[in-house]
Amino acid sequence: MSAELDRALKAGEAEAGARAFDAIIVGGGAAGGLAASLLCEAGLDVLVLDAGYDAPFWRKPFSQTTNALIRTVADPRLMNFIPPRLINAGRRALRLAGRIRQPVQTQCFAWEQLPDAFVDDRDFPYETPQGRPFNWIRAHRLGGRMIIPGHGRQYYRLGQSDLDRSDTEHPAWPVSGSELDPWYTMVEQRLGLAGARDGLESPPDSAISQPLSLTPDEAALADAISSRWPGASPIVSRYAPPLDTLGAAAATGRLWCRSGAVVRTVTKDETGRASGVEWYDLAARRERTARAPIVFLCASTLESTRILMQSEGIAEKPGILGHNLMDHMMVKAEGIGPKLSGDATEVEPGRCLYIPRFDLCFGRQVNDCGFGVQLYRSSAGERSWFTAVAFCETAPRTDNRVALDMSRRDASGNPVLKIDFQYNEAEKALAGHMSAALEELAGIAGVSLHSLEKVPAVPGTSVHECGTARMGAEAATSVVDSHNECWDAPGLYLTDGAAFPSQGAQNPTLTIMALTARACAHARR
Asked: Is 364 helix (H, G, I), strand (E, B) or coil?
């Protein structure tokens, strides 16, 4: 943590409820951090409220001891001193212990590397109907899920065909690709995006700061894929490490930051404009308020929707707020392949071979819910490790929804969220085709699979949930307008994945950040 951000945290602890700010941002992840940076750079005094909280040892001795042990055992350097068999046995035992407090979060593959960053499921539970599980993976730490080791780091634009599907199942976005282009470019330049310009319709080309070309191994596999499926377009991934946006915001001297702040509601003044938020202080265990004429909800898809649901007189439209939840349906394959050329044993995090809209090679149409495949390979002596992950878009449907259970409360006093989501039969059938495609891709790569999912992973596992507070051109059918400003509360902006009308097959983070940048410019005006 930079000295400037540490100062911002200390200032936020002292002044979060004692003065008015120009803007309040709820959440310090990809969207919230960027909003803080842009608004601070524009000369606004900004307060960031983030739920992340490191409880003192005396409050959670079991969790803190378990987390410290699992981080130690997960350190790969330990293999230099202890036999791998003993290490793996210890990891299994500690993961079982971790499930006592984090039964959902331990389902995330990266939990072992930073267990403290994940939410305590006991303190912050949620509900799902019997037989319809949903893995709601949440990070309670400044930086959000972006800082979790192993995060995909994938950044792709949505094309015009993704934004305007011209069918009844997917509503058109109220913003065009040409309107988003300058904001995509601005975000990509800040990221220092690595990749290549490929000339595809979807994903469209990005502003590349670090041009890449395929390695000989990647090129050989790409040629083999293109020979087998002439319509396929394998490309090198577009990736970048997480931005230190909060650090950049703090460097302006205009950031106040408060962690352990769980926002309950957005407040409005007598004219109906946003006027601030009410929040719960986890450290002091009391309710507090903060004031500002501009509020950005960037708490993550379902958290932002929860806040809106608790806010009086905002988005009270039946069938809109809380509905149309989406998540990428995921299928994965893993195995061992032949030795790769070169001596490198590590691949830069985020680098892979990406096959966008691979489904079009199997007779599906552009307007159909499609899937892309990310192929990861790394050297392991005389062999290589192979992982293939297919992400498929799901359609926005009103019966996939969230609601509040007012009879149960979490550790902050908020009502528990009920998540009701399931894949339909067409999506389940497509998962079978995805699995078969991964198996054939492994065969082309000369890989012997030791794991191949025949059915999709539990919803939520891809950690790409979107929707439930969609943007649109009309107040009657959406929660926010084309600039992500809430119809019912001017000055209130929602820019995380909750605003997506549809999803596309690409990772959503770049579009979330582009929408945030565009909304910041609108708020400044």
From this structure: coil
> Which amino acid type is present at position 162?
D
pLDDT in tens, 465-487: 999 999 999 999 999 999 999 99
- Check: CB of residue 491 under 8 Å from CB of residue 21: no
How far CA 461 is from CA of 109, 137, 328, in Å, comes to 9, 7, 9
Residue with tokens 């007012």: 406
Nearest Cα to 393, choosing from 419, 416, 364? 364
Q: What is the pLDDT of residue 83?
A: 55
Tally of helices (H runs) and strands (E runs) in the chain = 11, 19
**Helix, strand, coil shares, percent, the chain, to 5:** 30, 20, 45
Contact in structure between 302 and 414 (CB atoms under 8 Å):
no
Task: Describe the strand order of the beta sheet including 401-409 as a list of residue ranges.
Answer: 126-127, 415-420, 401-409
Lowest mean pLDDT among 90-99, 264-273, 282-291, 351-360: 90-99
DSSP SS3 for 286? strand
* HEC string for 434-475: HHHHHHHHHHHCCCEEEEECCCCCCCCCCCCCECCCCECCCH
